[in-house]
Amino acid sequence: MIMAEFYLDADNQIVGRLASGLAKTLLKGDVVFIINAEKAVISGRPRATIDHYTTKAERGDAYHGPFYPSQPDRMLKRIVRGMLPKNPKGRAALKRLTVYLSKPGKLENKKFTKPKASENNLSGKFISLGEICSEITGKKY
Fold first, then answer.
1. CA atoms of 60 and 33, how far apart (whole Å)
2. Closest listed residue to residue 35, CA positions, set 124, 139, 91, 106
3. What is the domain count for the chain?
4. Which residues neighbour 140 within 8 Å (Cβ) at sequence distance 6 or greater?
5. Are strands 41-43 and 126-128 parallel, antiparallel or unpaired?
6. What's the rounded Cα separation, in Å, for the pair 66 and 61?
7. Can you give the pTM of this predicted structure?
8. Which residue range forms the structural domain that includes residue 120?
9. Could you tell me how far CA 121 lies from the centroid of its own chain?
10. CA separation, residue 70 to residues 3, 75, 135 (Å)
11. Which residues pair with 8 in a beta bridge?
């Protein structure tokens, strides 16, 4: 049973706070669409954050894993997955989440909101998911 559909813009949103709110929303049975995943931010020293996620991406081997995504949309979905329960209810909730790098054409006429609880009001250092993934892969996001 689908409760509602939410359309969220991750531009300048703190990833952890956004993901925890999304996990609660998805577990209620709602469907969530997120755009601008590359513009979501992670707080902390940029170099340390890049090193942390580079280590995660390079861990394991190409055949047996563990596999960690190096694209911003997949990385955001993986972070939300970590906050969901590891059971059939959590897997079903994750299937109701769709994350995009920018605004796709099929969602052009939808109105996207920015959650106030996860808005970036940081006075310290932070880095965007796009910048982290650019450092890992060498591609521009």
1. 31
2. 106
3. 1
4. 134
5. antiparallel
6. 7
7. 0.92
8. 5-137
9. 18
10. 32, 6, 10
11. 34, 113
Alpha-helix runs per DSSP H in the chain: 15-27, 46-58, 72-82, 88-95, 129-137
**Dihedral over alpha carbons 56, 13, 113, 77 (to 10 degrees):** 10
* Pairwise CA distance, residues 40 & 119, whole Å: 10
Q: What is the CATH number of the domain that holds 18?
A: 3.90.1180.10
In single-letter form, the type of residue at position 90 comes to G
pLDDT tens for residues 46-100? 999 999 999 999 998 989 999 999 999 999 999 999 999 999 999 999 999 999 9
Residue 39 Rama label (left phi>0; alpha psi -120 to 50; beta): alpha
